[in-house]
């Protein structure tokens, strides 16, 4: 009996979520926040060698990829919802990757 109730409750919640998502398709959303660029490095330890400066093994980067971070990630998560309009709002600064 409890299993049937759990199943019914889950089905009810899924219908409710589906209804909410359907209503979002016509919505406009503004995302205000810090937009940044996330960088991911794949390390290839098989290409490692000893560092002359430290005597420790290096961790050579074999691949590098980028993806939106911070508020940019939020904007990208809205994309599959097919919103009417998504407006990213942020401030542009002079900072570069390493400062």
Write the layout of secondary structure elements.
Blueprint: H1 2-24, E1 28-32, E2 35-43, E3 61-70, H2 71-78, E4 85-89
Parallel strand pairs: 1-4
Antiparallel strand pairs: 2-3
Overview of this protein structure:
The chain is an alpha+beta fold. The protein has a domain at about 25-90. About 30% of the residues lie in helices and about 30% in strands. It is built from two helices and four strands, in the order H-E-E-E-H-E. The termini are far apart. The mean pLDDT is about 85.
Quick rundown:
31% of the residues lie in helices and 29% in strands. The mean pLDDT is 87.
List the total number of helices: 2
Largest sheet: 2 strands, parallel
Average pLDDT level: 87
Oligomer: single chain
Low-confidence stretches: none
Distance between the termini: 61 Å
What general form does the structure show? Answer: flat
Proportion in helices: 25-40%
H and E order: HEEEHE
Largest beta sheet: strand ordering? 1-4
Count of extended strands: 4
CA radius of gyration: 23 Å
Going by helix content, strand content and strand pairing, the class is alpha+beta
Strand content: 25-35%
